Amino acid sequence: MRAGIALGSNLGDRAKNLLSAREKIFELSGVRELFLFSALHETDPVGCEPGAQKFLNAVLELEYDDEPEQLLREMRAIEESLGREPDHARNASRTIDLDLLYFGERVIDRPEMRVPHPHMHLRRFVLAPLAEIRPQLILPGQTKSVSKLLADLPDNSAVVRIESEW
After folding, report:
1. Which is catalytic among the residues 2, 44, 65, 84?
2. Is 99 annotated in the active site?
3. Per-residue pLDDT for 88 more than 80?
4. pTM tops 0.70, yes or no
5. For the chain, which has fewer Cβ within 10 Å, the N-terminal or C-terminal residue?
């Protein structure tokens, strides 16, 4: 199943954190193939504590052979291995943040897992990199493509593409 994952970091060596997370994701047993990954984008923190550093964000899409719950567990383990505490405060600065954006056409709405990600269609820092790799994708529950969602987004926060190769 094709799965989209958002990566973000605003503490430490942000690019290295994202690269390490991407490498660990590629090593997961259920990953068959990496399809696509966006450039790195620098963005202002959204909802973080005052004085929080800017984030580096990216999105990747891969083919995953197991269930979405397993992928989410493995993503949490990667976050912990890269220094994120399991009880990390919501929207606080972090070395790494991995979000499962979508898992094929599946819709999951449980307290422990919501797929597609319930807020991604409202976040420029997710839509801009996703539009690079899947501009025509129509997410479950949406009627517009990712590029159209991005164009229509009232949020005009800065998302600066900084590096295409990482």
Report:
1. 84
2. yes
3. no
4. yes
5. C
